[in-house]
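User: Hey, quick favor. My workstation is busy. Could you predict this chain's structure for me?
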Amino acid sequence: MSITPDDERFMAAAIRLSRRHLGRTATNPSVGCLIVRDGVVVGQAVTAVGGRPHAEPQALAEAGEAARGATAYVTLEPCSHHGKTPPCAEALIAHGVARVVISVTDPDPRVSGRGIAMLREAGIEVDAGVLEAEGRRSLAAYLTRQTKNRPYVTLKLAVSADGMIGLEGEGQVAITGPEARAEVQALRAETDAILVGIGTAISDDPLLTVRTPGLEAQSPIRIVLDPALALPLTSKLVATAREVPVIVVASEEVSFLQAEGIPPSVLPDISPTRGEIGKERDPSSLAPLSDKSTSGNVGQGASPQPIPPLVGEMPGRAEGGAPPTDPADMDSRRTVLEAAGVEVVYCNPYHPEILLPALATRGISSLLVEGGAKTARLFLDAGLVDRIQLYQAPVVIGEGGIETPLRATDIPSGFAHRGTSLFGVDRLDEYEREN
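Assistant: No problem, here it is.
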């Protein structure tokens, strides 16, 4: 059967539905499924919070007997393997569905093409690739982690009319208006983790949480690139670490940790379920981060060479004094941070080509880089940004402004402009990597 306008209409609805649980389905993708009979939706569902149950069995249960002879619209190829739940392809067969329309084929080697084959062997008609570009966009985080062994990275910048992203020594400066800020809150709510540099963490003292009423529980894991453990103990991040997880990425060049027998280049287990970070450091269960062989699969443009420390990203002072350099002081500071609920991990903060795969293996599929001109440049130069959200506001910062690392006139090659949106007086231009 050829693809019809109705097929595209129902698939578009399934894709919209899938976005409801972005960032909330652990390591599983957020999939949308519609069961349609005689042009009427008789069942619909999205992957449940936490990743189970999957969308298909929920939609089939809602449809009941009406599923027999119906068409199922699924944004991702139904799974064909036995995991913690039975294969979704089997559920579609058991309910007597006559046709399955799929947007994106699953790259997971346990599934890829096998779900489609299973359905066809059962006599079910299958059409794949319907609104594939839109489907891939909604599944970008899952697909990137599956195919590139790293999270999907979004860089967000808010730029003033005179090309500034902040004001030296002034902490947080409101550049965009309330409408744009509300949109950013929605972006945070559908993202697994958010990352800033230590300079931003100290100068702005941000919370980095979701503050939209009703969505607070969807706040992402907060990550700070902090080579010398300079994060102030009185910061908002430390104060709220037991409410929303905070990970501090410290330099692995800390000899006293090696003397204590703690691997300097491993990340602790991070549960893919938001809000749960493993406290146990079991070296046998943690993959080393210093093996640069992983960098070959982290995305086009990734540099295999070490990226030098970012001059100016590290502040000269923290808590009224210089960042600790003595091993005993560093150990003491780590102990205090961990007692406050902060997770301290050891990996060169300026090696994103190593850090990102480590985050992916711990269930982080999407990362929002939101703070620091030099941190933004770090990820851009490494070729590890997949999407750019560039907000432009009519505000003028003036003298003492911090210049943006990126303007609309110098978007890196390989990015395509996906659209422009207006939020109040602010303009958002969105760009996506084409490959």
